[in-house]
Amino acid sequence: MAWLVVRLAISVSLLYTASAVFEDQVGKFDWRQQFIGKVRFALFDTHSQASKKLLVATDKNVFASLNSRTGDLFWRHVDKTGPEGHIDALLMYGQDAVVVVGNGRLLRSWETTVGGLKWETVLDTGSFQAAALVGVQDLVKYVAVLKKSAISLHDLSSGSQIWVENLPDSDSVQYQTIYSGGNGLLFVLGVVPNSHIVIVEYKIEDGEIMNKKSVEAAWMSSLESSCAVISSGILLCVDQITQSLYTLSLQSAEQTEMRQIHLQTLDLEVASGFRPVLTSTQPNPAQPPLSEFFLQLSPDHHILLQFKDGLIAPLRDFSPSYLAAFATSGERTVAAVMSPKNDTACSINLFSADTGRRHLDTTVIYHMDPNGGKPNRLYVHAFLKKDDSVGYRVMVQTEDLTLTFLQQPGRVVWMREEALADVVTMEMVDLPFTGTQAELEGEFGKKAAIQDGLLPMVLKRLSSQFILLQAWLAHLWKLFYDARQPRSSVKNEVTIDILSRDEFNLQKMMLMVTASGKLFGIDSKSGTILWKQYLENIQPNSVFKLIVQRTTAHFPHPPQCTLLIKHKDTGLGSLYVFNPIFGKKSQISVPALPRPVLQTLLLPVIDQDYAKVLLLIDDQYKVTAFPSTKNVLQQLQDTASSIFFYLVDSSQGKLSGFRLRKDLSTELIWEVVIPTEVQKIVAVKGKRANEHVHSQGRVMGDRSVLYKYLNPNLLAVITESTDTHQERSFVGIFLIDGVTGRIVHEAVQRKARGPVHFVHSENWVVYVYWNSKFRRNEFSVLELFEGAELYNSTVFSSLDRPHAPQVLQQSYIFPAPINTLEATLTEKGITSRHLLVGLPSGNILSLPKMFLDPRRPELVSEQSREENLIPYAPEMPIREEWFINYNQTVSSVRGIYTAPSGLESTCLVVAYGLDIYQTRVFPSKQFDVLKDDYDYILISSVLFGLFFATMISKRLAEVKLLNRAWR
Amino acid sequence: MQQMKRLLDIYVALQALFALSWCFSDGEPGPVAGSQSNGDRFKIEGRASVPGVKTQDWISTALILVEGEEYVGFLKTDGSFAVNDVPSGSYVVEIVSPSFRFDPIRVDITSKGKMRARLVNYIKTSEVIRQPYPLQIRSSGPHTYFMKRETWGWTDFLMNPMVMMMVLPLLIIVLLPKLVNTNDPEMRKEMEQSMNMLNPNPELPDVSEFMTKLFSKGSSKSGGGNKGSRSVALKRR
To answer: Listed GO cellular component terms (chain B) (predicted)?
Structure first.
């Protein structure tokens, strides 16, 4: 019964706090973009001529079907992140796609039209080596999977295992590839590095070993990278040291050593330091591969060769050429080769594979993005035209993960920026004012007011008003002009030049930094990519930190952002300074960073050009300032004694605080050691610098005030126990003052483990952990209060705090797992806060902070009702109305970014993971603007009705008065 | 916090019960995953359905999450599913679909591979309400992501207490004089008496009377009273 009452109370309170999406708001201010990641395998559906399917498997463990006409997703399946969901191989036959997942853990077959699973089988343990479709008498019936020590054959239609055999001498021989030419035999090829090759021949029906032989190959280290099977079972290998090709017939018993063919005899030479690559093609798994193959001799030199009667003959030399690929349509196989045309463009041409002759009128021009990377993969979709000639389309993948789909003669059909599937960090920057807006702003500049007298100022005012009027008229004219045009012809293209700040600053520039080192500038309103910049030579696992040094508020100085790129292991970093609106690299000289950077600090100190000063602390605790003009150094000297920073060394469990000295060296002030034998530091978070707190305290039921403990220097440190046993593991939280090193509070959650997600804001910390005893997620909230009186209400100083804050804590059960956690942020902090919870289902839950209030009473009293406190309930509710992204789910959401807008009620939200979703949330509803559903008709009809009623009644009254006078 | 402590106590008591029920379930000939097991790994099987919707229309966007993203499974074209490679333990199995709602189910796997499904209860974690295994999960309908807009209707307007308070007296004022014959002198007398009773102090000037006097005076005085009244009307808006 009590439960019912509590539920009822909650539901009643929800009526007032819920912020939800209305159906008519769909797509009004939100958008989602779906991505797949870096393509590892791509196969065009050649089953039927009209098929638009393009199957892709990516490094994000995504298996998807794309519409090759538009680039949109038909369907997409995202497997578990990490190596367990890694897609090892993708094979396709007819309507079925066979996928090997998780280092040979699972074998799956997908029905590609619907996007549903056909079957799934668990494979025996062992690391995956290779997989191939196996055909018998022109029919593909089986799929063979080679593991480190075993080979298994599965039925293609049901997935059932036909046989599994252990490989002979698997501890010494590295089996790496399989080959089947459709003649009832299956070859497994292995190598003993620098010794010999082992070839085992299996009978397809029952897995019986028919033959086994070993061939000397002292020069060979790996089969996979240097060999290919061509023609009817000829193993072809290339070696760069001996500069020769080797051939070996797999089937013949008499050939006991590999035949060497010197590349010199073919007038060829491998570029020094380059590992030559062989590319062969087997259009139909039930038939032997073609006897033509590509040999890549240097990064820009391919050659098409043919094997005939034991001899190798060059068909065509492609120099220079970047990429080459085979494609088959029906019975005809073609080769597409990409060669450089000029500095900005490449041309792709089609050649017939068997002769090397160029097909006429097949050139596709590919324009390279000057801000992008080089092309590195080429996927060709060949098809037969009506006149029986071969047509083709190509998909080009570049280093910066752009997928471009091209059609003859070079028309870009679609483009996907797959780098956005891995956003590392992001910021939102205000858009600049337009010229007229800037003019108006400039009028109030200090300098102008001092120089000019009264009259010029009046004139200036008038002239700027006139400019505004002009702009407005032009805008009206444009509206009128656009309205006259038919809908379709009005282009809604967003370009950087027409973008300007809107009235409520709701439209911003999203800066996104991706793991591949590509930067994007995206319009937050429409999701259009306005600029992109690929930073070359970025190490694969770099750490990025994006800092906004100068906002757009300082016209005419351009806004300035700095990206710190740090190598994960060495810590060596570099700075990249750019203009966030246009994406242009700034000409400002950047300090060299010879030593690893440990910490960065953005100071509120600004230089004469209004750029905030960035301090970089290296591993010798030396400080580099950027910008480091005289002015800045002077200011730093003056304020050095009040600049503190902290360093975290999680490997030694050490937190240390430093103070800046006048000569830009540092001194150690405090040190907190958290013993690493017991627990390790997982995360440290301060508060966001742009956060505003409106109210200093909370008004209690008895009209007294409970003041918040608003320490801007407070750090929340989360630790996890090193002992991971279910009974002994724990999660700890320390609240440490970053200036003095004083531990303000510490709490331990027993029988709990990570991953811990937490938010630190205002006077509270919310964290989520896994309760390993009850097997559920729990939220815990810590709130700090000064008490009924403020110690020093004018200024907060960490050095002068005699009283420890009161700490309140409460925990709740959260009935779902959590991927990420963030809090909403508004301009002045008046609006109530919500927590945005990213769930594994892809939904983003907007949970009112009201529910995470440690003052929620167990028993309802008059005072708690006065305070609007919800009675305590252990389980946190999840309502579908709170999902701010309705059915626009964000796959594997990794981060949520919140930014304030010009409207106090509105907070901009960007959720990123595999997808990107942008929306606005109104935690306290839209209290400062008219609602979307504001009934203009009703209000105006009431107004007019009243107006006419007064008119009529007045008239009636007049008549009545007249009548009375006559009486 | 207190509540949670209490729960802890309850838990200890229930733990015994739980152990008991565990023994019972051991005795039952549950579906043994012997043939499906792969070392110490097991398979969670089941079938999902959405009433009234063809499987191919929703399975491509759905997936099965076991304990968050710990283990992931996909739906087959007939709506059945199997999550392979799951070690023994207790898991919450959930079907995630952007369009349809499915209730999560907790699946317990013993170290021998015996399976049992029960309702998820995060508060009483050891409570067992058995569910069929292999899982049979039916969707409870499409998600209700959207709030209903408050639409304006005449009934809402009329039933508003403020409006009721305004309209009812108006009706009384307009209708009552018509029902009662005011020309009847007896009646008039009676009414006057009752009015006097209501008005305890007849000496006090009646406010309404005073106001009417004031206004009528004003309008009769100025010829341009029309304008004045009009401006008042405008201001009221």
So the answer is: EMC complex
Percent of chain A at pLDDT above 70? 95
Residue A890: closest C-alpha in chain B: B98
Kindly list the distances between the CA atom of residue A122 and the CA atoms of A8, A64, A186, A895, B166, in Å, as whole numbers in the listed order: 48, 21, 22, 33, 75
Q: What does pLDDT average to over chain A?
A: 86
- The three-point CA angle A42-A43-A46 to 5° equals 160
Whole-prediction pTM = 0.84
A389-410 residue pLDDT tens: 888 889 999 988 999 999 887 8
B44 closest CA partner among B57, B31, B25 = B31
Position B201 scores a pLDDT of 61
Tell whether B208 is covered by a domain: no
pLDDT digits (tens, 9 = 90+) for A743-758: 999 999 999 988 899 9
Assess whether pLDDT exceeds 90 at residue A255: no
CB contact under 8 A, A840 and B149: no
Here the CATH number for the domain that contains residue B66 is 2.60.40
CB A107 within 8 Å of CB A128: no
Q: Rounded to an integer, what distance in angstroms lies between the CA atom of residue B86 and that of residue B71?
A: 7
- For chain B, what is the domain count? 1
Which structure tokens are listed for A154? Answer: 């599965």
> What is the number of other CB atoms lying within 10 angstroms of the CB of residue A962?
10
B93: nearest CA partner in chain A: A816
pLDDT of residue B232: 43
Q: What residues in B contact A114, CB-CB < 8 Å?
A: 56, 59-60, 77
Identify the domain containing residue B83 by its residue range.
Answer: 42-142
Asked if B63 has any chain A CB less than 8 Å from its own CB, the reply is yes
What is the pLDDT at residue A962? 93
- Nearest Cα to Cα of residue A260 among A277, A238, A276, A245: A245
Q: What is the DSSP letter of A549?
A: E
Distance of CA A211 to the CA centre of its chain: 51
pLDDT in tens, A913-937: 999 999 999 988 888 888 777 778 8
| Per-residue pLDDT reduced to its tens digit, A798-817 | 888 888 899 999 999 999 99
Question: Would B205 be classed as within a structural domain?
Answer: no
B121, closest residue in chain A (CA to CA): A815
B68 at interface of A, judged by CB pairs closer than 8 A: yes
Choose between A207 and A486: higher pLDDT.
Answer: A207
Q: Do B145 and A775 touch (CB under 8 A)?
A: no
- Cβ–Cβ contact B108 with A under 8 A: no
Query: Which residue of B74, B76, B149 is in closest CB contact with A22?
Result: B149
**pLDDT at residue A490, rounded to an integer:** 47
Measured between alpha carbons, how far is A215 from A197 in angstroms, rounded to an integer?
5
In a domain, B68, yes or no: yes
Q: Output b/e per residue, A783-812; b: 16+ Cβ within 10 A.
A: bbbbeeebeeeeeeebeebeeebebbebbb
What's the burial of A186, exposed, middle or buried (CB within 10 Å: 0-12/13-18/19+)?
buried
Q: Residue A965: phi, psi to the nearest 5?
A: -65, -35
- Is the ipTM, as predicted for this complex, more than 0.85? no
What are the CA-CA distances from residue A22 to residues A19, A697, A900, A921, B156 (Å)?
10, 33, 22, 12, 20
Question: Does B51 reach chain A within 8 Å, measured CB to CB?
Answer: no
Token pair listed for B100:
């349809």
Instruction: Enumerate the β-bridge partners of residue B44.
Output: B83
* Contact assignment for B152 to A935 by CB distance below 8 Å: yes
Work out the average pLDDT over B107-115.
89
Amino acid at A738: G
Please answer whether residues A782 and A748 qualify as being in contact, where contact means their C-beta atoms are separated by less than 8 angstroms: no
Asked if residue B31 is part of any domain, the answer here is: no
CA distance A172 to A192: 7
Are B38 and A840 inside 8 Å of each other by CB?
no
* C-alpha distance from A950 to closest chain B C-alpha (Å): 7
For the ranges A11-25, A387-401, A823-837, the lowest mean pLDDT is seen at A11-25
